[in-house]
Amino acid sequence: MKITKKGFTLVELLIVIALLGALAVGLLAALDPFEQLKKGNDTGTRNLVSEVQGAVIRYYALKGWMPWCTATDTCDDISSATNLSSSPMDDAISRIVDSGELKADFTSLAASNLGKVFVTGDANNAKVCFQPTSKSFKCDPNTKFQQNGDAAADPADCTTSCGTNTCYWCVK
Helix, strand, or coil here: 101? Predict the structure, then answer.
C-alpha cells in the first residue's frame, strides 16, 4: 500500500508569498498613495477657487461692485495677490456671505485651504488662483499663471516641466 501526502512544501509556499509581495510593491509604486492625497487636496482647493470666483461674480452682478469695495469707487487695494485668510479678503468674504452668495459657515468649512487661495482684483475684475502640489495639476494646461493671475513669464515652462513651484492654477 502506497501512502501519499497532500499539501505544499515550505519552499513552494515561500515562493508564492515572495511573488505576492513583489506584486504588492509594484501596485503601491504604480498608485503612489501620497500623490493621490495631493491630487485630492488639489481637487478640493480647485473647487474652492471656482466657488469663490463664482460668488464674487454673482456678488458683482447683485451689488454693482466687487466685495472688496464698499461702493462703486471705494475699493480696498488687492492689486497684488491676497490670500483668503487676510484682512481685506476676510471683510470681502463676510460681505459675500451676508449677501447669500456663500454659505454662512464657509470660512469654517474651508479654513484649511483659505491660506492657499489668492485673489487679485480691482473694481471690475477678479482673478482667483492656487498653487497645485500634485503632478497632474502641475501639468494641467490651466496651470500657467503667476500668483496674481497674470500669465507666467514663459507659460510653456509651467506645462512642459510640470514641476516648477512658480506656476499657479487660476480662474479669471
Answer: coil
pLDDT at 158: 74
Q: What is the pLDDT of residues 45-96, one digit of tens each?
A: 999 999 999 999 999 999 888 898 877 667 776 878 888 888 878 888 999 9
| Sequence spans of domains, the chain | 38-171
pLDDT grade for 165, boundaries at 50, 70 and 90: low
Cell numbers that stand for 10 in this block: 515550505
How many residues are present in the chain? Answer: 172
Q: Band of the pLDDT at 111, cuts 50, 70, 90?
A: confident
Scanning 6-154, the segments in alpha helix (DSSP H) are 10-31, 33-63, 87-99, 106-109, 135-138
Burial 45-67 (b: 16+ CB within 10 A, else e): bbebbebbbebbeebbeebebbb
Q: Contact at 8 Å (CB) between 135 and 162?
A: yes
3-state class of 76 per DSSP?
A: coil
Residue 146 cell numbers, joined: 503667476
Distance CA 54, CA 31 (A): 33
Q: pTM of the prediction?
A: 0.78
The residue type at 141: P
Task: Give CA separation, 6 vs 3, 9, in Å.
Answer: 10, 10
